[in-house]
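Hi W., the iron/sulfur cluster complex you wanted:
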Amino acid sequence: MDENIIERVRKKLTGDRGGITRDEAMELAVCRIDGLPEIMLLSNSVTSRYHERGVYLCGITSARTGACPEDCSFCAQSVYSEHPVPPSTRIEPRKILESARRAEAGGASEFCIVMSGRGPGERTLEKVIESVRLIKTHTGLSVGCSLGILTEDQAPLLSEAGVSRYNHNLETSRGYYPRICTTHAYDDRIATARLVKKNGIRLCCGGILGLGESAEDRISLAYELRELEPEVVPLNFLNPRPGTRLGGMHALHPLEALRYISIFRLILPESILLCAGGREAVLGEYQPWALFAGANALIAGDYLTTKGSPPGDDIDLMRDLELPILRYT
Ligand code: SF4
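Structure:
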């Protein structure tokens, strides 16, 4: 049975008969784990067909941390967490520029300014735009933002300032979302994703796996994302944070994480697949295999509230794997 689904998908991909169906994705999601190497071979062939060989590196900085009124159950920046991260809410463009310079020195070609909160207020947005202009003047980086829910008036301002990409994740499937967040709706997220595209900003939109969702939820998330046609799809893996509602969850098994990287690649062949938060904690020594399974971008350096790989480690990894570092346009 397992061989059948792998063989069927292989024939389909060889004959170039379109992407895989939801039923086929589900079969791959539940087939025996000893089929994983073959699934990874399939997804690797799709990456080679649609993408230049190599890996994009993206740096991020937290411009505003903590004190978030939203109740995302995985997030230590939420005021609902029993041990929320200490807030730091003053946006300092010069400090953001310093972080951007460090990211560029570490091989990143994209730098994303990330903020906690439901969405930016007027003064906050002005500070972010000032930071974007500084980075564009003093570095060669392409600049992204992840500021939460945007209004119709705000998206054009970011576009005019030269923001290349906007990150706004769906997090999980529509069906599972109410178990993860109740203070804003799934459709609020979709509206912001559509709004940024309407304003000529490229969309970076993905999710987080390991929230207690089912295999069906993960496949549904991938198909929800496919509807939005994001240029970049970040895949995060829950690294349970003490004090959050999901603090007692078990992290995903690394082989399951690899399985879903492969399946997302098969469902989203044209998107850049960014292996994001939780990569080190969940994949551990399997991290290089993520790049074989279909990921072709990494977050370089630290995440928002947790440590990432030490500077230079990812560059060493690329060298060992003989993979060139690509530049975001
Ligand atoms: S994920 Fe974002 S919106 Fe949700 S609680 Fe954390 S900072 Fe707030």
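The chain has a mean pLDDT of 91.

W.
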